[in-house]
Design a protein that fits this description.
By secondary structure, this protein is an alpha+beta fold. The chain has seven domains: 98 residues, Zinc finger, CHC2-typedomain (DNA Primase, Chain A); 128 residues, Alpha-Beta Complex (DNA primase DNAg catalytic core, N-terminal domain), CATH 3.90.980.10; 74 residues, no CATH class; 110 residues, no CATH class; 64 residues, no CATH class; 195 residues, Rossmann fold (3-Layer(aba) Sandwich); 131 residues, no CATH class. The chain is built from 41 helices and 45 strands. The strands form twelve sheets. A six-stranded mixed sheet has the order 12-14-13-15-16-17, with helices on both faces. The chain has a six-stranded mixed sheet with strand order 23-22-21-24-30-29. Helix 34 crosses helix 35. The longest helix has 29 residues. The protein starts with a helix and ends in a 15-residue tail after the last helix.
Amino acid sequence: MINESTLNKVRNLPIEDVLKSYVQLSRKGSTWMGVCPFHSERTGSFSVSPQKGLFHCFSCNRGGDAITFIMEKENLPFWEAVKFIARNHQIAIEYVDEERSEEQIAEARHKESLFIALEYVQEYFLENLRTNMSSECQAARDYAYGRWTEEFCSVSGIGYAPKNGSGFMEYCRRKSLNEESLFELGLFKRGEDGCVYPMFRQRIMIPVRNRWGRIIAYTARYIGDNPKAPKYINSATSCIYSKGETLFGIDRAFRQRDTDYYIIVEGAPDVLRMQLVGFDNTVAALGTAWSEGQFDQLKAYTSSLCFIPDSDMADGKTFGPGFEAVIANGATAIRKGFHVTVRELPFASVVGDDEKQQKNDADSYIRCREDYISLKEKHFIVWLAQKRFFVAGSLVEERKCVAEVADLLRYVKDQLVFDLCIEQLAKLHGKVKLWRDAVAQARGEAKKRNGKVSSMNDLQREAELLRQFGLFIRENCYYSTGEEDEEPSRISNFIMEPLFHIEDESNGTRIFRLRNMYNVCRVIELKESELCSLSNFQQKVGSLGNYVWLAKIDKLNRVKEYLYSKTDTAERIRKLGWNAEEGFFAFGNGILTNDGLFKNVNELGIVRGINDKAFYIPATSKIYIHNQEIFQFERLMVHENRSGVKLYDFVSRLMEVFGENAGIAFCYLLSTLFRDIVFKRTRHFPILNLFGEKGTGKTTLATSLQSFFLHGVDPPNLGVTSIPAMNDRVSQAVNTLVVLDEYKNDLDIRKIAYLKGLWGGGGQTKKNTNTDGMAAQTIVTTGVALCGQDKPTQDMALYTRVIFLAFTKTSFSQLEKRHYEDLVSVCNMGLTHLTVELLNHRELFEKNFPEIYTITKRELASKLESDTIHDRIFGNWVIPLATFRTLETVIEVPFNYTELFDTAVRGMRNQNELAQENSEVADFWNMLQGFQTSGKCIDRAHYRIKYMKSFRPISVKEDMEFREARPILYLNMAAVASLFNSRNMNATANRSNWSTIMSYLKSHSSYLGLKQDRFVILTPSGLPDYSFEMVNGEQVKRIKVNRPKALCFDYLQLKDAFGLELETEVINDTMDVMEDIKNEGDSISSIPIQEELTF
């Protein structure tokens, strides 16, 4: 095999020297032009860029480097083209002379076969973009040449994979490409039915190359109209391609021998944009996090890096994903010895509230070299300090910032750069001396961690450190050295070994191992306040056994200073579940990292090695193993893979027992696992309401879902649970599910108000005694399942905040009972292994959910276009639908999106219908109907119905025209108000309730406006009021009337919506009997009917 030195010499040849025997070139500015050797033409359209080492034909769209040119012109494979150029330019061809085993030789041949297969495949993709005249390929050209330029696409090798994959498969067969190789490269996939299909369809194909320019993989951009298709996909890992070891753009950057630094951007599209504007020294990882191997590759080419992070919104985190990535990768680069700078993009200035619109990246912002140059360049450490101090809200956080920045500064070896950073940091915070001291301390701590303090052994170092604080240890007791001739005094009968400091802004804790003079050991957790009070300290250590402190507080402070100097710090996990700041999911017994690895706590409750930190979860610590009254929730939420049931099997069992409702409930559970992402997009999160009689299994469904987090515990009964207890339950974890049982409509109204607040993420408001003493509202970060035998219609505002699922079946067959018992037994073993499985898809969900949510919402609105659905009910049901749609391609369950969509539509319509039946407006019309039936609401006194072809309310200039006479209901609200007010003696409550009803009535779609009309005045007995007048000598009785402003409604709409029937008819007894006979289906001849008598 040709060695690397020969290949370097060939690639470093001037491209014009390689091409001069094929084409006559003439200089035009910084480029050379000539007649293209690949096709016939009169006017030269063949361009060569000596600076970039690339050629391009503006006519046939061929392009690439010198090796690519020889490969195409001489029809040679890669290595043969290298040999051809070397021989023609008197370059000695050197081979790798190491002895290789048969396995190594076979592996090298296999790799070369993959490279050759990709060379053939590349020709197919290129021809589709260059010469295929179909409308589909023309659309691909329009996209590619519109986003970049035709020349750039040519020299970069950008191609197109058509929607119909049969042409690609036929091409591979025609070229006799090995099918196994195509599968290994990820170009072919096999479906569940065993059929083979191409991986890349309807995608712009962007080649990923190694540093020699050979294609090793593709990153492909979808340009079709399938909303579920991911925007970008990459080739599968193979023996020539690994995402974690590949740098996109390294082939061009490798040729930039005279560049001072490399530019690091977030993704392949950003690299292409930077190359297009002239920065070939740009690379990116095909993923957010950089690996050690990728930095090691760069170390061979440059010592300076400039990061351009995506400027995107934080979305509930301290920084956006782009800044977080650069913070992590920049720190690693500093530790690797790179000189690192940052050029930060401004946020996109887009009018609107959509946070996604405000994102900016290099691909969008940088359109010319001036755009890049205009970005202010800062040293990474200074940039990081600005970010950290901007969000630091306390002295503790500022101290952490100083420590973090100082630890990075110790890696800066260039004294001029170091002094400049110190000077700029002093302008941000503190003074120059503070930063120099912090760096000195960081260096000292690093040496201590590496065991390089001195050549003394551990015991000598310990003794020396004790001596500095006026202490020494003898027989597991502390002694204090005296002044001058004063004898040393024993100050305790025990010593303390510092295990961990648990950080907290107001009252941190420290874990120690106590060992007394009798060699008895105990582990203790002491709060900082207990270490500051001598009596409290003595009481706490003495409570463990024979541990006695003999001295005053000054000696205790000496021991504290000594112990604190050698104590590692851990962060307390305050809430289980998703930790957005650190990017992991915490259980009561360990932490699931973002790479899918679960790390258990040790016996003290400590987890090390996550983000270079230690974390403390005390629930399973041996310190509290005998105290069962604390950390009860944390001890329930532990990860144990005891059942081993597969996700598909679990959901199948769930649906066997609970039917299609289980599908919606399961999708709600999926939403809770990513609640923070959902809430960021929707600004609300619904409650799952499981309603049904006793014995329907509704609570079992809820606890089955809860088994994804904790099992073997009954949900709290709302009837006997206080609001503070409810508040604690829903705020103990993040992105989990809480079940609340026994909902009743007669619950305390304050509890119902609290439940309503959960929809918007707000909990109980209480005084914050730990910080500023001001009122603060608990932030609710969990999903809530509400079970009960009452529909939550006591307050319709609560009912519209839930996803309502009804359960009616109370009797079950023996088979159904067995299925139920099987499900319960599986759930009792816990399902946290399924939680871990689903959480591994968080990156995909976070990327795709916002767009899929919008698409799903639009489709659902189109489906329900003819329905009038309450906005909140509609928004609630969209969430589980969009969640499942986002994850459908990566999870396996016994239903699909189409089936779930139909189920959701039925459920939404059912809930909306119940909402209309139980609303305040519906209650008003039902009561009015009741008043009319009982004779209290009288036609022409309280209401009247007029059939009209046109209608004009007060303050409206134009008539409402109807095709035919339409019934208009005139409501005398003053008279009707007297009927409703008579039900309640509280005048203030009456006025408030009536005002609310009036508001609801006027906002209903059936309301037409106000109009004066004539109404009969009634006496206190409910009869029309009369007066008598003398007319022409005779006494005439006249009915008293008035003309108030009446509320007017579309009567037909009220009949349809609420079943209102205020029109009456008069029938005689015979008609009544005939009606009864007709309804009963009896023969009229069999019943005697008395004829009407005439008088």
